[in-house]
Amino acid sequence: MIDWKAMAVRLGPELAVRYGANLKGEIPRRLEEVHEAVARRDIRAVERIAHSLKGMAANLGAASARAAALAVEEAARAVAWEQVPSLVAAMAQEMAAVVVGLEDYLAQALCSTKEDAMRILVAEDDFSARLVLQRLLKEYGSVDVAVDGREAVEAFRAALETGEPYRLVCLDIMMPEVDGQEALRQMRALERELGVPSCRGAKIVMTTALDDPKTVVEAFKGLCDTYIVKPIDKEALRLALARVGLLEE
Q1: Which CATH class is domain 119-243?
Q2: Which residues contact 6 (CB under 8 A, 6 or more apart)?
Q3: pLDDT for 157-171, tens place per residue?
């Protein structure tokens, strides 16, 4: 009924919850207005309110509710008054089901903690370095791992498409198959392709054993958020997470 995954990808989980909470109150208010407009035979008000409800349904990915609102809008525009009351009743039923879906979604969302929302991806081909990062990061959230750049990009894509994106990616620059620089470019391209605003994108931290200014410059051109030089310790990691806004200084 409602495409929560697409909405979470488009807006980000926190904004999606706020938007849903707003519509949970707005939709019943609009339905009350449209019934009053029908009672006083105000065809233009019916058209205007149906258009508004159609937009809300479209934003939620609620196809049947959108279709019902569109039918009311078109009948009102054509001044086909004999059709309007029954179409409004059908629209109200569809939109009421949307409100029930919103209530269920918001109840589930409010049960999730901020820590639960922190999904982390570690992409590192060296076993020891991967193990260190897993150990250091597990206190901040759930950690998935990839052993090369290609696997990292596929994991990143799957997380976006399921509406559960990674908030943090630790990406080694030197990896087989696809290196960290190319994986970074592909990840940012995936976010653009799926309409993720830059302010809602993953925080990507490049990790490298190369003390090479040129390598670091290339990483920032690819829109990474910061970098850490190996070997990585707990304090260096904490400072990096603070720099990208995931922890307080």
Answers
A1: alpha beta
A2: 61, 163
A3: 999 988 889 999 999
